[in-house]
Amino acid sequence: MIRIRFHGRGGHGTKTASRVVGTAAFLSGYQAQDSPYYGAERRGAAVVAYTRVDEAPILERGAIDQPDLIVVADETLLDAADAQVLSGQSTASAIFVNAQDAGPLKENFGIAPPVVAVDLTTLTLEILGSASALSSGLAAAAAAMSGIIVQEHFVAALREEFAQLGLEREETEKNVQVGVRVFEQISPVEIHAPSTGMEIEMATVSYENPLLSTPSVLHAGNAEARPTGTWRVERPVVDPDICTRCGLCFVRCPDGAIALDEDGFPVIDYDHCKGCMICQQICPLRAIESKKETRAW
Ligand code: SF4
Ligand code: SF4
């Protein structure tokens, strides 16, 4: 069995990527299983998805804590404590990261397996016009690294999955273009000691008081303690020469990350702005510009 674990942020297409790889593996004659894991996350929050591929029926379920391949949609996830991207890296034969350069990542983040890096963000911006529509590139990276999926089946899976999502044909074909570009530049990885099955172990789940097992948010103002600014791949920047101080962005920011200064100009709290860019879309004067977060590129 090959176990692939995808890490991304809400809006990256992480779940779709895992699904495309599962479908491509199925079209290539394998058994496949794919499943996302996300709770009450918002756009930009860490998301994980799993794909298992095997020749035999897959009886294993749940999270993959010993992955053979790890696929990372955004290098800022590598040091995000809540994402746990590198957990179980000792079993991984390789890690794919959407980044310009694999070199510094190994040292900076203590990554043991070989790192494969492709700058998906620039590619998707160029072809799809979006920095965050990464599903086809992530799926291509995983499919190519697995070494068991042929390009023809990968492309067929992309078209099938995007059709199910209701994507226009033109958009689907742009995704195919991204997928093929990535697929063709990544070589298969030698997956060391892939397992062929597993012992089935039944877990006994004990009952816990709901307040312990599903913790509630009980204290007001706790959002301040969560630095959602690390989620951001785009940074909103207000141009004070254009801004008319209408206050719309202040009202509409879903995270309350915009305050107004004493003159009524919006001031963005970058420790908590998650980069959803709703403020940019809502601004009637187009006074908010999107800047790339350099570490995400
Ligand atoms: S400041 Fe803008 S980009 Fe940041 S969280 Fe608020 S609406 Fe989203
Ligand atoms: S919505 Fe635009 S014009 Fe209005 S306060 Fe915000 S930045 Fe200024």
Characterization of this structure:
This protein is 29% helix and 18% strand. The protein has 297 residues and is of the alpha/beta class. The chain has 2 domains: 2-185, Pyruvate-ferredoxin Oxidoreductase, domain 3 (3-Layer(aba) Sandwich), CATH 3.40.920; 224-296, Alpha-Beta Plaits, CATH 3.30.70. The strands form 3 sheets. It has a 6-stranded mixed beta sheet, sandwiched between helices. A two-stranded antiparallel ribbon has the order 7-10. The model has no long low-confidence stretch (mean pLDDT 88). The structure holds iron/sulfur cluster (2 copies). Residues 238, 243-249, 266, 283, 285, 287-288 line the site of one iron/sulfur cluster.
Provide the succession of SSEs: EHEEEEHEHHHHHEHEEHE
Record field, number of beta strands = 10
Task: Specify the CATH homologous superfamily of the largest domain.
Answer: Pyruvate-ferredoxin oxidoreductase, PFOR, domain III
Unreliable residue stretches? none
The number of distinct structural domains comes to: 2
Distance between the termini: 33 Å
Q: Just name the CATH architecture of the largest domain.
A: 3-Layer(aba) Sandwich
CATH class of the largest domain: Alpha Beta
Gyration radius, rounded: 21 Å
- List all distinct small molecules, including ions and cofactors, that are bound in this structure: iron/sulfur cluster
Structural class: alpha/beta
Characterize the biggest β-sheet: 6 strands, mixed
Q: What is the share of helical residues?
A: 25-40%
Rough shape? globular
CATH topology of the largest domain: Pyruvate-ferredoxin Oxidoreductase, domain 3
Q: How many H/I helical runs?
A: 9
> DSSP strand (E) fraction?
15-25%
Spatial order of strands in the largest sheet: 2-3-1-4-5-6
Mean pLDDT over the full residue set: 88
